[in-house]
Amino acid sequence: MSNYIELSVIVEPKEQGSDILIAQLSEQNFESFVENDKGFLAYVQEELFNEQELKSLIEEFKEVLNVSYSTQVIVQQNWNKEWESNFQPIDIEGKCYIRAPFHDKKEGYVFDVVIEPKMSFGTGHHNTTQLMIQRLMLLNVKNKSLLDMGCGTGVLAIVAGMMGANPITAIDIDDWSYENTVENLAKNNINNVAVHKGDAQILEGKLFNTILANINKNVLLNDMPVYVKVLEKGGDLVLSGFFETDIPELTARAEQLGLKFEEKAVRDQWSMLHFKKMS
């Protein structure tokens, strides 16, 4: 397996700058982001890291952002140590508590989710994951088939499993994510999830009542026809992984494919869109 590059970015203004750079870096093969007081950490497979692209990106925004960065190589066996220094439990609406195994369980939550630290996107810290969980908790998925597309750590599949969804399929193109999802499902005693490594091409012939896809805008635009094809009539498609400014383009694409807009949510410029297949 690959080592990873940890990119530590300090940016001013912090909020706007982090949002802009994270969106751009997600198009440069970066997989995971952890925001902090001065900016953020970003992670990319070592062989996919292109420092010249990074410098060009910073140069592009030099008039509006003050950016500095440093990098270090993170080998697989050191990831847990790195993660523990950054990972804090997450409370979502007082209903869902996402924690690592080294955090104590808290009573009073409907969903207590344990995520083993690994190099996977979707731990719950990012706004998009929280938006997806908030929407998922409002859906009726009990005894209904569900797809977690781009599963990352498997956190959405885990919450769906706790809500009674069945059967569940979780798919990610990344080795780390596949292995981490399998591990986290076991830690949370969720045993009705089929985990696959791959992309939308492997969905052929399948059918789902609910599809959750927290990926980036370009992948969503490209794969949306496949999602619509494998979504049952009356089924729900919930999308995130993009900015508020991307909503018109994604909504237009969904409506072109015959989906009905249901709801949107925005958090710090990151967005969620919920559509329903009516026919």
**Main sheet makeup:** 7 strands, mixed
The overall strand count is 14
Task: Give the class-level CATH name of the largest domain.
Answer: Alpha Beta
Rg, please?
18 Å
Number of domains: 2
Q: What's the CATH superfamily of the largest domain, by name?
A: Vaccinia Virus protein VP39
* Structural class by helix and strand composition: alpha/beta
CATH topology type of the largest domain:
Rossmann fold
CATH architecture annotation name of the largest domain: 3-Layer(aba) Sandwich
Q: Give the integer mean of the pLDDT values.
A: 90
Detail the poorly predicted runs.
none
Distance between the termini: 43 Å
Share of β-strand residues: 25-35%
Question: What oligomeric state do the depicted chains represent?
Answer: single chain
Write up this protein.
With 279 residues, this protein is α/β, with parallel strands linked by helices. It folds into two domains: 4-83, 2-Layer Sandwich (Alpha-Beta Plaits); 127-277, Vaccinia Virus protein VP39 (Rossmann fold). It is 29% helix and 33% strand. The chain has eight helices and 14 strands. It has helices at residues 14-25, 51-60, 79-84, 127-136, 155-162, 175-187, 217-229, 247-256, and strands spanning 4-12, 32-35, 39-45, 66-74, 90-92, 96-99, 111-114, 146-149, 168-172, 193-197, 208-214, 231-243, 259-267, 270-277. The strands form three sheets. The chain has a seven-stranded mixed sheet with strand order 10-9-8-11-12-14-13, sandwiched between helices. The chain has a four-stranded antiparallel sheet with strand order 2-3-1-4, with helices on one face. Strand 8 (146-149), helix 5 and strand 9 form a beta-alpha-beta unit. The longest helix has 13 residues, at 175-187. The radius of gyration is 18 Å and the shape is globular. It starts with a strand and ends with a strand.
